[in-house]
Design a protein that fits this description.
The chain has helices at about 1-10, 40-45, 75-90, 105-120, 135-150, 165-170, 170-175, 190-195, 215-220, 255-265, 310-315, 315-330, 330-335; strands at about 30-35, 95-100, 125-130, 155, 180-185, 200, 225-230, 230, 235, 245, 270. The chain is of the alpha/beta class. It has a single domain, classed as Glycosidases (TIM Barrel). The relative contact order is 0.16.
């Protein structure tokens, strides 16, 4: 509640929060990628993901930033409720949950996310990850299963990893039997259209910057697909051992530039990478300064948009609310002359 009050009091948000959000189940305006894969020794009996690449939580975690509320368990109903409140406050209307197949920890936590999201009038989609053994047959079974638990929108990460365009096309009828919507993470719009996807998104904010959004959306619309380019605040995965590339946040300028490019591209909706992918440093979840003698000094949001202290911790939530409102209310032509 303390952070939500700070968010509502942030100076550039008072005019930015939308009067209302689309009802759950309708097409999104803004969707955000969400990770339910964290665990703590106290809550789950072991550390999950925080200790990636040899780190030793709770003080030493596999991330360049540190959560404002400390490391948490994605199996904690209070934490999930807090996160959904923050996502709602940020003007987002769809949560895209990372999902690694039936029986995975992410699958076990999906009902908790569904309950908390619906309490905040958020729709829930699944980010179908390239789990071990993912095949066309397993995906068809996954979609039927997810439909039964109430998820009808699927974002497919690396859709052509082991599954061909023609494979997807042959399963089109089966995959859409329950009225599901499918989005492909790819810049190859023609392939996505031939495969039977309903739209495309980019997810990777390093490889796919704002300069390519216009071309992506123009091509998508020529193929009668929806276009949902992905924006993000920055990228730093060095402490997780995943990647050595860095896309600096530049005190919020990176996020503003990607949002502006996305809106100018005339997308059907915008996707945000991410709410809480701490390992890759793309999170907009609140972060706070943390430093222990002899340990790594974690990054902070201090200085973003001129904010400091407690206000800086929620700066990216607040700025997401601002841009979500701009997207819903402003044409690309107006955006060219509008100052954030």
């Amino acid at each position: 509640m303390r952070r939500l009050l700070l968010l509502l009091c942030a100076p550039f948000v008072l005019l930015a929060l939308p009067a209302s959000l689309p009802a759950a189940g309708s097409a999104p305006s803004v969707a955000i990628f969400y990770y339910p894969w964290y665990g703590t020794a106290a809550h789950d009996g072991q550390w999950q993901h925080w200790g990636q690449d040899g780190h030793t939580p709770p003080d030493d975690i596999a991330a360049a930033y540190y959560p404002a509320d400390g490391v948490y368990s994605s199996d904690d109903t209070a934490e999930i409720a807090r996160q959904m409140d923050e996502i709602r406050s940020a003007g987002v209307d769809q949560v895209v949950v990372s999902w690694w197949g039936r029986g995975s920890p992410e699958d076990a936590r999906l009902p908790l996310v569904l309950t908390a999201a619906r309490a905040d009038q958020l729709s829930v989609a699944v980010h179908l990850e390239p789990y071990a053994g993912r095949t066309l047959a397993s995906v068809v079974a996954d979609v039927a299963y997810l439909n039964r638990v109430g998820v009808g929108t699927i974002y497919v990460y690396e859709p052509f990893d082991g599954i061909t365009v023609s494979d997807w096309a042959t399963a089109r009828v089966a995959l859409h039997a329950g009225g599901e919507a499918f989005y492909a993470e790819t810049p190859m719009v023609g392939a996505a259209a031939a495969a039977g996807f309903d739209g495309v998104y980019t997810y990777d904010i390093v490889t796919y910057g704002g300069r390519m959004f216009g071309r992506l959306c123009q091509e998508a619309h020529r193929h009668h697909l929806l276009c949902a380019p992905s924006v993000g605040p920055g990228y730093d995965a060095r402490r997780s051992g995943v990647d050595q590339r860095v896309k600096p946040r530049r005190d919020g300028f990176t996020y503003d530039a990607m949002w502006r490019a996305a809106i100018t591209a005339r997308p059907d909706f915008v996707t945000v990478t991410s709410f809480n992918e701490w390992h890759e440093g793309t999170q907009i979840e609140p972060a706070a300064p943390r430093h222990r003698h002899g340990l790594y000094r974690y990054g902070t949001y201090d200085g973003a948009w001129g904010l400091h202290g407690a206000a800086a911790q929620v700066a990216y939530l607040a700025r997401t609310a601002y841009w979500a409102s701009v997207f819903r209310k402003t044409s690309p032509e107006q955006l060219k002359t509008r100052q954030p």
